[in-house]
Amino acid sequence: MKKLNQINHSQTNSIMENNKKWLTRSNITTAIMVVFIGALLISPQFKGAIIQGLMKIGLFQPSIPEQDAQSASPIGSSTEAIEEMVFKDENGKTITLSDLKGKAVFVNFWATWCPPCIAEMPSINKLSQKFKDKSNVVFLMVDMDADMKKSQKFMQKNGYNLNVYAPASQISPAYFAGALPTTLLFDKSGKLVFKHEGGADYGNAEFEKFLEATSLK
User: Fold this and answer.
1) What distance in Å separates the CA atoms of residue 107 and residue 186, rounded to the nearest whole number?
2) Per-residue pLDDT tens for 7-18?
3) What would you measure as the largest C-alpha separation in the chain, in angstroms?
4) Residue 34: which pLDDT band, with cuts at 50, 70 and 90?
């Protein structure tokens, strides 16, 4: 019996020693990195949180078009021909781009599974709240999965006050070429004055001023 206890004690010590050898700083760091990478690969929310953190330190800023010194009119795509788009809300009511002439229209193509979409959503919500009392500015959040229940649930869960739509017509490649997210801004005449593919921080002061100027022209 005594010999058996000695053997068990020896085995226990051996296991403890092996554990001590495994629990080195290098191995712990490696394990943490494996968990981190696994979370990045599996969870869109986790990826979105990482991108959102990078936005807070000044990365992923939207590239605002240069302005003409005299007219303050964006230079570039504002001269392109207008192409119609149709969207529908959760009740099936449709709205067209031409219906919104006379307003600045912010259109965001997104999906609930898209990490950059998740990352930029708080900044879009923040921007929309600053313009919520201005009838000449409209925000259209277009769920490219057209799963209204899922997208509405996403908005409610995160406390976003953004109107969700689904595409109800073919979208011109000039407006959306498949990259999520893609954000567009149309001026009051219905012409495209801003396009950005990929996530961006729309809560910054420069973009707010750009949207304000677009809504007043």
Assistant:
1) 8
2) 455 555 555 555
3) 98
4) very low
Q: Can you tell me the distance from the alpha carbon of 195 to that of 175, in angstroms, rounded to the nearest whole number? A: 8
Token duo for residue 62: 């939207």
Show the DSSP H helices in 57-173 as ranges: 115-130, 148-158
**CB-CB contact of 120 with 181 (8 Å):** yes
Query: Which residue do the tokens 């004055």 mark?
Result: 193
Query: Cα–Cα distance between 52 and 59 in angstroms, integer?
Result: 9
Q: How far apart are CA 62 and CA 45, in angstroms?
A: 22
pTM value is: 0.75
Neighbours of 178 (CB within 10 A): 10
Q: What is the CA radius of gyration of the chain?
A: 25
Q: How far apart are the first and last CA of the chain?
A: 94
Residue 118, token pair as written in the block: 């998740």
Closest of 108, 115, 68, 59 to residue 85, by C-alpha: 108
Instruction: Output the CA angle 58-61-66, nearest 5 degrees.
Output: 130
3-state secondary structure (DSSP) of residue 171: coil
Computed from CA positions of residues 95, 98, 102, 108, in that sequence, does the dihedral angle turn out positive or negative? positive
- Which tens digit of pLDDT belongs to each residue from 48-93? 777 777 777 777 789 888 764 334 444 344 445 678 999 999 999 9
pLDDT value for 18: 54
- Tell me the C-alpha distance between 74 and 71, whole Å: 9
Tens of pLDDT, residue by residue over 142-165, are: 999 999 999 999 999 999 999 999
